[in-house]
Amino acid sequence: MVIRPATPADIPALRPVFEAAKGIMRADGNHDQWSAPGFPDDSLLLRDIARGGGFVMENGTIVAYFALLPSPEPTYDVIDGAWLTDEPYGVIHRMASYPEVHGIFSTVINYAASRYAHLRIDTHRDNRIMQRLIEKHGFTYCGIIWLEDGAERLAYER
């Protein structure tokens, strides 16, 4: 599995990856996360790419996407709870893959941990799959944060 920076030319190949990830969420009872049509939209992915934080994983074809961005993450400024540290961190967002490809989460976390001493991640309350993966990989639940639109997310750090 190869991880490389995403390019704008990758965006059409990412649409089915995100739709597959939404299918995984819906099948597990998570009907609200990423429910806006076309989420994440091209402008959000292009911002990830412009910041040097959009990545694809491929094994001949693109099978996954994730954003790995440097702190600060504005939505993490206010937390109902407490972060483990005030040190600089990397934040992981928009992780998506095809369901038949396994080990994506572990690969992303290993990649992120090789670049940042501290990592933060958040997920929807109904995303039980992601919560299990986050906790399995040594993250500590820190509290609730709120997105720009006011939606709450469960926040973790390691």
How is this structure best summarized?
The protein is built from 4 helices and 8 strands; from the N terminus they run βααββββαβαββ. With 158 residues, the chain is α+β, with helices and mostly antiparallel strands. An 8-stranded mixed β-sheet has the order 1-2-3-5-6-8-7-4, sandwiched between helices.
Commentary on this structure:
- With 158 residues, this protein is α+β, with helices and mostly antiparallel strands.
- It has four helices and eight strands; from the N terminus they run βααββββαβαββ.
- It has helices at 11-27, 42-50, 104-113, 128-136, and strands at residues 2-5, 54-58, 62-70, 80-81, 90-97, 119-123, 140-146, 152-157.
- It starts with a strand and ends with a strand.
Summary tags:
8 strands, single chain, 158 residues, 8-stranded mixed beta sheet, alpha+beta
- The helix content, as a percent range, equals 25-40%
| Inertia-based shape | globular
Mean pLDDT rating:
96
Question: What portion of residues belong to β-strands?
Answer: 25-35%
Number of helical stretches of at least 4 residues: 4
Q: What's the Cα radius of gyration?
A: 15 Å
Q: Given the helix and strand composition, which structural class is it? A: alpha+beta
Q: How many extended strands?
A: 8
**Main sheet specs:** 8 strands, mixed
N- and C-termini, Cα separation: 24 Å
Order of helices and strands: EHHEEEEHEHEE
Strand order, main sheet: write it out: 1-2-3-5-6-8-7-4
Low-confidence stretches: none
